[in-house]
């Protein structure tokens, strides 16, 4: 083989080897390339709305019951039930009489309670000193100042005695005293009646 042909042959062989190497490298890179990662899948879930918790209904507070006594000791009393909330007090009973009859039963001060009984002071503006309302409640119609005064005083006395005497006790043993503002004895000059401070009420 001529030297010139040998050179061409070698060049061809080198070219083939080079092509083979390049082809192998290209294939190796293709095989070693990591696969494209798929997009991440969202794992968040929509929050489920929590149902509102219903508040338990507050039971109605049971009302207590008391009895009002309207009338006089001479003519007798009629009983009228009334309801109230909380602890029973003399003021609640006296206000109950006022609401029932329409009479002004305003107190000058709270009823005082002691070993000797209960002391009640009606205000100067009350019906005891100023007469019944106009017009009057037909069921509790009073014909004159004396009838009104006796009915107010007797009804208050009887209602307090019955309301604050323990079971099995004697209501009449609970003395009721009346007095005027300024700690003065109760006086009703228009009908000629008065009661000393140290003596329980009796008509």
Automatic annotation (TrEMBL):
Keywords: Signal. Residues 1-26 form the signal peptide. PROSITE patterns: PROKAR_LIPOPROTEIN (PS51257). Residues 44-57 have a biased composition (Acidic residues). Residues 29-43 have a biased composition (Low complexity). Residues 27-62 are annotated as: Disordered. This is GerMN domain-containing protein. It comes from Dysosmobacter segnis.
